[in-house]
Amino acid sequence: MTTGGTIATEVGTDGIARHASSGDDLLAVTGCGDVRVDDLMAIDSAEMTPQRWQQIAAAVRGHVAGGATGVVIAHGTDTLEETALWLALTCAVSVPVVLTGAQRSGDHPESDGPGNLRDALTVAASGQALGVVVCFAGGVYPAAGIRKVDLTDAAGFAGVAPIGQVRDGQFVRSAQAPPAFLGTVTRPALPRVDVVSLYPGADAVALDAYADAGAQGLVLESMGAGNSNDVVIDSVSRQVENGMHVLVTTRVPGGTLTPGYAPGQRLVDAGAVMVPHLRAGQARVLLMAALATGSDLVSVVERLG
């Protein structure tokens, strides 16, 4: 299934990468056979939306119901981590679902797209019970915790240990990913969850505005170890009292988040929930899925956050 992204682009004379390749074009370069192509959409992944997640999920279920023994989704890297986690949380199928993409355009002399796609097809054809995974630069990763960490390097993704690798055309599995499925979500309208990035001198304007816009949940991208100032903490307390669900993550790329300082503990006391490992993008997806499936948020965070 193609959705667009760098893997399907070529760079024009103006230096800008634009979509140029269909799924058949991508497949022809890999040399793989017995693959049905579904050109589902052709967008920059910055244009991905929750409604499009649902479109992808419905297509996955439809192809599996039609006899597919594995599914590969070619996706732009900017939001691949969000789509992967949404599918892992809400789209349970009995075959491997593998997301991949590229850091370099299809016409780049060292394009990584064909190799990534070939590896992803290898993983999808393995017949192993994997759920939803990401295959990139030879590594195979669970959806929860994966994140883009570099704009140009071929590896591109990190944040979680791989569960296997593709070596010499074979998928070699080394670990089992924890089950992530929460429940099937089929309705197009999903709970609104917004992200608020904190900074020195941050006030409550953004939090209050999102609440007024109908947000059911907020993710605070905190400073350091889950910390915030008094103004934001007071706003969180008010929002939680009004029924808002608040998760706290951090802008720091690495490490496990815990409320080790007084401001972070005050956020927890105000009713916010600390997310140990996921950063803002995937924490938002986790909160959306928990709300959409009626799952207990604390339990979900303890298991997957």
UniProtKB/TrEMBL annotation:
Keywords noted in UniProt = Hydrolase
UniProt KW S-adenosyl-L-methionine keyword: no
Q: Which InterPro entries match?
A: AsnASE_II, Asp/glu_Ase-like_sf, Asparaginase/glutaminase-like, Asparaginase/glutaminase_AS2, Asparaginase_C, L-asparaginase_C, L-asparaginase_N, L-asparaginase_N_sf
Provide the binding site for substrate: 45, 77-78
Residue stretches making up the Asparaginase/glutaminase C-terminal domain: 192-297
Q: GO terms for biological process?
A: asparagine metabolic process
**Residues covered by the L-asparaginase N-terminal domain:** 2-170
Q: Which residues form a coiled coil?
A: none
* CDD domains according to UniProt: L-asparaginase_II
Which chain regions cross the lipid bilayer?
Answer: none
Give the positions the UniProt entry annotates as the active site. 6, 77
Pfam families from the entry? Asparaginase, Asparaginase_C
Q: Which GO terms describe its molecular function?
A: asparaginase activity
What protein family is recorded?
Belongs to the asparaginase 1 family.
User: This chain belongs to which protein, by name?
Assistant: Asparaginase
